[in-house]
């Protein structure tokens, strides 16, 4: 299992994932990022249209950028 950090940002503000989440081999990092975005929207409410989940490995390398709502639109940017 690998550990990734699922941070959320709008370019000015950031919700940091200090602990990270373990992802099993074959499990979708993209699906997990979409779950993080949905959890943030549900917990805090409001307009999150300018926000993205940025996924990093433990070395700090970005592996995925998923705009909030992108799962429904079929979008994601691999790093």
Automatic annotation (TrEMBL):
Residues forming the DUF6894 domain are 4-68
Pfam families registered for this protein in UniProt: DUF6894
Q: Which domain of life is it from?
A: Bacteria
* Name of the protein: DUF6894 domain-containing protein
Species assigned in the record: Methylobacterium nodulans (strain LMG 21967 / CNCM I-2342 / ORS 2060)
């Amino acid at each position: 299992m690998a550990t990734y950090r699922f941070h959320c940002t709008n370019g000015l503000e950031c919700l940091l994932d200090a602990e990270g989440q373990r992802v099993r081999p074959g499990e979708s990092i993209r699906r997990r990022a979409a779950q993080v975005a949905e959890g943030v929207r549900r917990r805090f409410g409001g307009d999150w249209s300018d926000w993205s989940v940025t996924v990093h490995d433990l070395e700090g390398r970005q592996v995925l950028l998923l705009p909030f709502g992108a799962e429904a639109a079929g979008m994601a940017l691999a790093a």
